[in-house]
Amino acid sequence: MPAVVVIGGQWGDEGKGRVVDFHSRYCSVIARYSAGNNAGHTIINERGKFALHLVPAGIFRQDNTCVIGNGVVIDPAKLLEEIKMLTDRGVSTSRLMISQHAHVIMPWHPLIDRADEELRGELAIGTTGTGTGPAFHDKVGRSGIRMADLLDAAHFRWKLRTVLEYKNRVLTRLYGLEPLDAEEIEARYLEYGNQLRAYVGDTISFVQEAHGRGEMILLEGAQGSLLDLDTGTYPYVTSSVPASVAAGGAIGIGLGPTAIERVVGVYKSYQTRVGHGPMPTEITDGGDMEMLREGLGGAAGTAEYGTTTGRPRRVGWLDGVLASYTARINGVTSVALTRLDSLSAFERLKICVAYEIGDQRVTTLPATIADAVRAKPIYEEMPGWQEDVTDVRHFSDLPRDAQNYVRRVEELLGARIDMISVGPERSQAIVTRDIFGAALG
Ligand code: GDP
Ligand code: IMO
Ligand code: MG
Fold first, then answer.
1. Would residue 210 count as lying in a domain?
2. How do residues 321-362 score in pLDDT, each as one tens digit?
């Protein structure tokens, strides 16, 4: 069986959590392979509404294993909180595994995250402040602490003291902050290690063996391709290594790239972004902005506010240029188009099909931030449908104009749309093919 990666095709929050929750029924392993608790994945199913930041969205099925892979950075306190929240709500986490090689977010990381943002001035990114970026800096800078380090007290004591001596110099001399206390951190993190010990193991061998037995593995991406270090709107991106794009899935879980045969690209029917950076199709005021931001016309209770930070998401029309670029970057073989219901209130809809930059017509990611800021979207207009679609379960039952919108997006993406989500709940979807590409119903 192939491994399948689910990735975000925009700036994150496309609805990856709900798509993974839906498809996890077909898979025996569901794994996160990148990022940290900067991610926030919302799932609404028969157990209620959940916001997951580290635990894979497959945790609600009782017959599979959820893995937090080697490519993830873990804030142990946040993970323990998430495990407790799930357990308190009757969701078992006994089948959760954590890679011994996953890096740990340490107390200096959120401090540095916030201090860096201040120092960046006009280049501030609008990070989540979770310490995720600095934890990846330490990974790349080879001074990271990994989950296995927390499980061996003597080794951790030595490593922490060595790293902290360096970090305290940076905190005090560069940032003008107070030094951190080694003893306090040592006691606290060893305790986290004790509480998480039962979950930590060799996930690379586990996943490889499951793959070898022909079991289905679903890799749950975080963020979106436009937030990726290499493929995104740099420097207004996140710092995950490996990347959240599909190619990172293999590295972040320990499979060879040939194991991944299918890539599901999750795209919102319009565009959102949290944090700073260019967004050519952004709508900055007026009724259209209000309609998208507050989710008017679509399913109730799904206004566009960040799952992790609660910040209002910036909103805009679907950017077909960037969507087609990320479909190619990821090798998308199947698309899940989400929040079609959120467009129901509009009389007319716009899709950006190219940019005008100076006297040039551009149809891919602009070369620099300056170009992206100058890019004037060239729009195609389409009639809206102005009908509630949240109860539709078959494509042919969608209003004709909604069908046309979906078909046009499909054309721009160059990949088949196999799932259209029309509401946040598990059942609110039109699904024509399963995650392996087999036709349904
Ligand atoms: P993720 O980070 O990609 O998992 O996405 P988030 O969970 O951060 O954000 C997606 C938001 O859209 C959440 O509030 C979901 O409940 C909601 N959502 C997902 N699919 C749909 C849909 O089809 N319609 C509506 N109205 N909301 C949806
Ligand atoms: P999910 O998985 C949306 C954004 C932040 C900021 C930038 C860098 O829920 O789609 P960071 O804290 O990572 O250094 O912030 O990236 N960002 C996200 N935006 N969804 C996410 O994850 C995000 N993860 C990071 O808002 O602009
Ligand atoms: Mg999110």
1. yes
2. 999 999 999 999 999 999 999 999 999 999 999 999 999 999
In a domain, 255, yes or no: yes
Residue 441 belongs to some domain of the structure: no
Atom index in ligand 2 nearest the CA of residue 240 equals 13
**Whole-number pLDDT of residue 54:** 98
Overall domain count for the chain: 3
As a whole number of angstroms, the distance between CA 274 and CA 322 comes to: 17
For residue 96, is pLDDT > 80? yes
In whole angstroms, give the CA distance from residue 436 to residue 439: 9
State which H helix or E strand residue 250 sits in.
helix 246-253
Give yes or no: 113 in active site. Answer: no
The per-residue DSSP string of 102-155 comes to: -EE--THHHHHHHHHHHHHGGG-----SSSHHHHHHHHHTT---BGGGGG-HHH
Domain's final residue, options 216, 245, 264 = 264
The CB of 238 under 6 Å from ligand 2? The reply is yes
Cα(398)–Cα(144) distance, integer angstroms:
51
The pLDDT value recorded for residue 309 is 86
Residue 244, domain CATH = 3.40.440.10
Q: Is 137 one of the annotated active-site residues of the chain? A: no
Question: Model confidence over 225-270: pLDDT tens digits?
Answer: 999 999 999 999 999 999 889 999 999 999 999 999 999 999 999 9
Q: Whose CA is nearest to atom 10 of ligand 1?
A: 15
* Judgement on whether residues 116 and 137 belong to the same structural domain of the protein: yes
Q: Do 227 and 301 share a structural domain?
A: no
* Pair 375, 356: CB distance under 8 Å: yes
Q: Is residue 155 part of a domain?
A: yes
Same-domain status, 327 and 356: yes
Same domain, 98 and 214: yes
Question: Could you identify the atom of ligand 2 that is nearest to the CA of residue 277?
Answer: 27
Residue pLDDT, tens place only, 386-441: 999 999 999 999 999 999 999 999 999 999 999 999 999 999 999 999 888 888 87
- Atom from ligand 1 closest to the CA of residue 306: 8
Closest ligand to 270 CA? 1
Bridge partner list, 229: none
Instruction: Tell me the best of 339, 343, 392, 426 to mutate to test the pocket of ligand 1, counting ligand atoms within 8 Å of each CB and taking the most.
Output: 339
Return the percentage of the chain with pLDDT > 90, whole number: 94
- Per-residue confidence (pLDDT) for residue 247, from 0 to 100: 96
Looking at the CA of 17, name the nearest ligand: 1
Domain that holds residue 39: 3-102+200-264
315 Cα to the center of ligand 2, angstroms = 15
Q: Which residues surround ligand 3, an ion (CB under 5 A)?
A: 13, 40, 307
